[in-house]
Design a protein that fits this description.
This protein has nine helices and ten strands. The protein has helices spanning about 10-15, 65-80, 90-100, 120-130, 145-165, 200-205, 255-260, 270, 285-299; strands at about 20-25, 40-45, 60, 115, 170-180, 190, 210-215, 225-230, 240, 250. Strands 1, 2, 3, 4, 5, 6, 7, 8, 9 and 10 form a ten-stranded mixed β-sheet that branches.
Amino acid sequence: MSLPIISADERLKETKGIKGCIFGKSGIGKTSLLWTLPAEKTLFFDLEAGDLAIEGWQGDTIRPRTWQDCRDIAAFIGGPNPALRDEQPYSQAHYDAVTAKYGDAGALDKYDTIFIDSITVAGRLCFNWCKGQPQAFSDKTGKPDTRGAYGLHGQEMIAWLTHLQHTRGKNIWFVGILDEKIDDFNRRFFQPQIEGSKTALELPGIVDQVITMTEMTSPEGKSFRAFICHTINDAGYPAKDRSGRLDLMEEPHLGRLMQKIAGKAKPAAERLTFSIEQDAPASSTPDSQENNETQGGQE
């Protein structure tokens, strides 16, 4: 058996799916992005029962009600993980049980995109399930242990997201609510609304794209919606573009956004920037601080 090296030609020919999340405040129109996707090739993973915004949309829907439903459907979509033991979720044994329950996984072949609305509700279902597990109770007193529940919640959510992220050949989009907060120094910052802190912190490192859907104002004072796609942005919105194909601001059309992400890649020299702006302030290093203090003492 030879070393299973994947050549560049083979890798470039592979069918790749886009994995991303879209955050925005309530009512900004996140669920309505389904209208921008081909209905016959999109599966709506409806956790919020909030399909009033897409009344008349002709796509298929699934409505999991429990965290176990969410895990089973993730295993059905992503297939088995051969690295896991039989007693672990997403293992071969879990996948076999799920296919016995739901039927042949080939039923998903017609879908190119799984639209999950929302990761905020998935986090609530997960935490509610975690509070009833043995890890959520103290070994000594038998009383509820909140830290244990949150620790298990972080593990469960990361495992669920990672398994879906490894689903090759399908686009997976998570939608979630974005909270605006003020820190102790009266500075504004944005944070995804997800139970616990572990999931919100690690999610950007799991998915390919992080998009903030927000309201912007034109120079004429007119409001409009937009996708913010770059990590470096003036407002500090959570954003990330692993493809290198998106502009800082894109139109709020998920279908065209995916077409742009899947388009021809620019040469690395055009995508990557190595220069430093000449008018940027010089960073203060310990050496420079020491020199300044010495010069100040001499004066």
